[in-house]
User: What shape does this take?
Amino acid sequence: MAWYKRVEIPIAVTVICALIQIIPYFFTLGPDVESFMDNAVNWEMVVATGALFVGAISIILVHAPRVVKRRQYWEYSLILLILMFVMMIVGLPIWEWGLGMNNDIFNFLTNNVLTPLDSSLYAMLAFFIASAAYRAFKARSLEAALLLIAGSILVFRNAPLGTFLVPQVSSLGDWLFNVPNMAVQRSIIIGAALGAIVLGIRTLTGYERGYLRGGGT
Amino acid sequence: MSFVQSGRASGLVILLIITIATVYFIERGKRGKVPSIRRVSGLDAIDEAVGRATEMGRPVFCSQGLADIHDSTYGPQTIAGLSVLSYVARLCAKYGTRVIVPVVSLTVYPIAREIVENAYRMEGKLEQFKLDDIPYLSTWQFSYSLGYMSLMQRERAGANVMIGAYWAESLQLAETGYKVGAMQVAGTANTHQIPFFVVATDYTLIGEEIYAAGAYLSKDPAMIGSIVAQDIGKIISLLLIVVGILLGLAGSNFIVDILKM
Assistant: This one.
């Protein structure tokens, strides 16, 4: 195997990039070294931005054949490709030609197409919550009953009508939210943070290779 | 001027202790002293989910959440998700089942593609790998969510494995998976999304369990050994909490002062 295909190369890059972030977090190293570390972090952003081309190419590779071969739902692929190219072209930072982030077409599409669609989808979440709650709020077991009771109290606490009808529900809801809920959340956060640290150590020592070509072979 | 940044010495000491413990337990595992760890039903269910999808002739969906791999806060969840993808892709390649990986992050895309492609190559079925099955959908949260939901509906997902950092789209994806009859395994360390996964999916991995997934599924003694180091960290945390409470009740801020060092 060619040396540049060896799995040790990405592991070494991972270790170097991680140390560039970890060392300045814990140690005071002087302005020259800190400036070097800052530059390295900025470079990471430049490299990540380069991945934009990968995304554009991927979309073209997936959707263009669909349009050319008139596969199922090819019309949607065509709309996607047209809009992607329109947004790309009018968003190019060539100010002399009137293009860029202040371009009228770019702003129109962002403010009148992308943002309203995004908001509508977010608003639809309420219906998803309703259907999930309908299934979950059935007292089939002790745990489900506790979830049902706690959830009902919090719904009452958050609804103006609930606190108007039963004023005590406000303090009970606050207690549920700030004591048992907070304790559980903190325990999950502590456990997750420890898990992330150990995962990081495994990654830096080269044992965690699942993210490298499916096992690093 | 201190060599160690102010307020970070205690964190450094705890990090060093956990690092030493991790390396020690990895070495111990390599020598064959494998600790017994509890079963994680969500991870055990992945085989069942892929098997069920295979029997139904439906594809398996596997995603890693919204976070970029270079995100220092949420990135580890994506790495954990990619480790699970590695396992799922290998299983799917073995059974000849389609695995669809909807991707939101451009930095994750080439990694996910290589993982799946390599899984098919390792099983000697590279000709079954389809680039179309690793679609980059969008960097926008709800555009991604809509694309993911549409794909699940159109392709009639047989299983849906979601391990990574999810936000408001978590419930949309989980509910859609439920509606198409997919067996679902989901996990995240984002505490506000865990309840959504609990109510809408068949198995939920909570917090630390997703980080242990790669080690757990690999069945490598050294990797499994490293999970024990998490318990060392938990013991330190518990001791600090208990001693801190007792000293606090006695009017001393000793533990708080130490942690602020």
Notes: Chain A has nine helices and no strands. Chain A touches chain B through 55 residues (CB under 8 Å). Residues 31-68 of chain A form the longest helix (38 residues).
